[in-house]
Amino acid sequence: MMRITVIAALILILFALPAPSYAQKPALTPPMGWNSWNHFACKVTAADVRAAADAIATNGMKQAGYIYVNIDDCWQGTRDDKGMIRPNDRFGDIKALADYVHSKGLKIGIYSSPGPKTCAGYEGSYGHEAQDAQQYAAWDIDYLKYDWCSAEKVYKPEQLQEVYTKMHDALQKTGRPIVFSLCEYGYGLVWRWGTAVGGNLWRTTEDISDGYNRMSVIGFQQNGLEKYAGPGHWNDPDMLEVGNGGMKHDEYITHMSLWCILAAPLLAGNDLSKMDPDSLAILTNKEVIGVDQDPQGIQGHRISEEGPLEVWAKPLADGAYAVGLFNRGESENPISLDLAELGIHGAAQVRDLWAHQDLGQFTGKFIAKVPKHGAVMAIVK
Ligand code: GLA
Fold first, then answer.
1. What ligand 1 atom has the least distance to the C-alpha of 183?
2. pTM assigned to the model
3. 329 near 307, Cβ under 8 Å?
């Protein structure tokens, strides 16, 4: 009897202990959310951030997995006598903003630079790293994008790792789990050491813009980086432009399909409070997002290429493949997937993730017509 009571007590104690640290590791799948930069740039205000949180909480994005509401550059004011950073007048009270975002069941992100100034010329964290990390934790911040910017004026390129490690250590010391987003445009082959300095994601390129050429150059050049991505540490080809108006429907389909095949972070970059139904449908297609968020966390890569016609594949946890047929050309074209490239020699089932349709069984090849600058995305098994 005594033995049973002791065992029961031990079991109770075990359940009462805090969850093991692996359960708290952030970004086990690519982070999803919204970031203010692509649409609002430096005009962003606390009201815009609240409006984004309101939209995510009510328009289906939260259910689709969008959780982080991230303030980018231009929130900073001056430092107080003790050197603590204060927000500017457009933001007022960051803790109140964080509480508001948290009250919607969402998380909040912020932005700084290791240099004296951010890219837009606001106060950076140089010489105040520990204080800033403490301030973010005191505000209950969940995510930090740390953008190289003017750090190039005070550090040498060979100090990149040391600089990012410094902020990572400062964040760790706060005891708060904070996703650490490295933004230094791929300098120093960051994918090779991003994980070692505590990065959960790292930008691999210079900035995206809202046009097919720039988006596709960035997206398609990710091929080859797949071995560096995995749960907790992701290549980041920059934030989404879906809904910002500079691309056509088929081009945004390419953007979303490619980012999901790449297991890229999905940070919407449009004005969520004024979104047309087509953009919302693209951003919230759960089958496409399921590919991005697959728990295995394998980044897809190009499996074949014929001029402007490319086939990409991403192995999924259940043994199936997500496949993207991309037409980078200037007219509609059939694109052919050779099933043997996936190691499939018998018949395969194909499901179209944008049409939400099972297309049936295919043997040898699967061929689809793909519009100019468009994509077909499918699950093949
Ligand atoms: C850099 C980054 C962008 C954005 C701006 C803000 O250009 O790459 O994503 O954060 O700075 O100034």
1. 8
2. 0.94
3. yes
